[in-house]
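User: Can you predict the 3D structure of DUF885 domain-containing protein? Sequence below.
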Amino acid sequence: MTDLDTLADELLDVIAAEDPLNDALEGYPGIGHLLGDPRTQAQQELRARAVDVARRARALDRVDDPVTLAVLLHQADDVVARIDAGLLAISLADYQSSPIGRLLGALPETRPVGAEQEEGYLHRLAGIPAYLTAAAQRHQEAIAAGRTPVAARVRHALTRLDDHLADPAADPLRRPPLGEPAAARRDRLLHDVVRPALAAYRDAVADTVLAHGRASDRPGLCWLPDGEATYAALTRMHCTTSATAKELHQLGRHKIEEIEAEYATVGAAALGIDDPAQVRARLRHDPLLRWSDAAELVAATRAATAHAEQQAHRWFGLLPDHPCAVDPSADPYAPSAYYLPPAADGTRPGTCYVNVADAPSRGRYLTEALTFHETVPGHHIQFGVAQSLSGLPALRRFAWINAYVEGWGLYAERLADEMGLYTSQLMRLGMLAMDSLRTARLVVDTGLHAFGWSRQDAVDYLTAHTVMDDAEAQRETDRYIDMPGQALSYLVGRMEIQRVRADAERSLGADFDLRAFHDTVLGSGALPMDVLADVVSAWVSTVTARR
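Assistant: Sure. Here are the predicted C-alpha cells for DUF885 domain-containing protein:
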C-alpha cells in the first residue's frame, strides 16, 4: 500500500464518521454502531481531519496515481463544503440529510446480519436521544447566527413527526429484520427510549424553532448570512465545475427551449399531439396514463430492469456481479424511486425501491426512464462496477460524487433510448418528461438560492415547463429548498459525459468503440468531471497509438 492509499483510507474513515448512515458505506467496517455526531465541535474536528489529510496528500514527494490524488482532494473539499454549509442545522424536513431524514429514512434501510450487526443496530437506537439533543442544539445555534429555516419546512417536519408518533405499528425502525432476543430488545428501545426522544425533539422544534422560520417568499440561501458563498461552494461540490449560478441558470433556460422540439416530435408519434404544452397537459391530466395499483407499477419496474439487464452485455464489458433487486416502498415521504448500492460487506444487494404509496397517482409513462436511471444502465451498473474494482483504494470504490453519479444516471436514460429499451413512444415521452425536469432544475435551484425566487416562483416555473401538476411541483420545490445545489448535478454531469464521448468519437472516428468508452468511464469509480475528461483523453491516446 502506498502512502497515498493510506491517506485515502484515512479520509474515507473521516467521511464514514461524518455520516455513518451513508448509503454507499453500509457494511463499511467500524461504523455499524454509529449515527454520527451533529455537535459543532465534532463536525469541526472532522473538518480539521479532512483538511489535514489533503495537506499531507499535497505534500507527498511522489504520486504514482494522480487520479486517486485528485479524488482524495475533491472528497476532502466536499467534507469541508458540507460541514461549512451546516445544512443539518437549518434543514429539518429533507428526506435524505435532515435529522429525521437520517433516522426515519436512512436508518431503516440498514440490514443487520448476525449478532454483531444486530447489536450495532440496537446501539444506534440507543444513541438516538443524544443525536436529537445535539441536532436541536444545532438548530438553536443556527438561529442565533441568523441562519433560520423555512417555516413551511419546519411545519412539514412537525407533521412527519406527528404522523410517526401516532402510529407505532408502522414504525420504519422496526423494518430491519432482527432475530430474537434482539427483536424484543429493539421493541423495548423504541417504546422506552426512541419514541420519547422523538417526541421531545418534536416539542423542541415546535417551541423554539418554528417561530423563527422564514416566509416562503424567501426560501433560498441568498437570504441568509454568507448565503451566496455557501451556495457557490455547494454548487462546486455537486457539479465539480466552476460554472456560476448565472451561467447554470441561463444554460437551463436554453436547454428547456431545445427540449420543446422533441416534445413536438415524440408527442405526435405517441399521442397525435405536436404542441408541447398540450402534450404536457395530456401527460399531466389523463387518468388512463396512470397505474391502476401498486402491483402493476412494481411489475413494470421489474420487467424493465430485466429487459435492460438482458441487453447490457452488448453495451458494457464491465458489469456488476449480481442483478439489481427491485422492492416496493410504501413510505409517503420517500422519492418516487431510489437506489441503494450493495452493502460494502455484501449483506445487501443493490436495490431499487419503487414508491407504491398512492400508486394510481403516478404516471406510467415515467416508469421506464426512472427504472433505467436507477437500475440498468444507470446507478446499479455504476455502483456495482465501482465496488468490484480491484486494486483501487476503498475511497475510489465507494466515492459518491454527485455530478458523476447523477450525471451517469441521466446519461443512462438517453443511452437506454440508443439501446432500444423503451417499449413505446409513450415511454419515450417519459424520457423527455424526466429530461425537462432535470433541465428545469438548473433554472429553479439557482433561482431560489442565487436570485431570490419565492417558493411560488419555482412552482410556477415547474408547472409551465414540466409535466408536474401543482402538488408535485410543490414537493419538488421543497426538495430544492432543502438540498441546495444537489439538483444541478444531473444535467451538468450528463452534459460532461456526453461532451467527452463526442470528443472521443471525433478523435477516433471508425475506431471509436462505445462499449470500451463506457468501460473507461466506469472503470475508475466516481470521478470529478475534469478528472473523468482526463481519463477518457488518456484512453483516446492509447487507442490512437495502437492504430
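The chain has two domains: 3-233, 234-492. The first strand starts at residue 325 and ends at 329.
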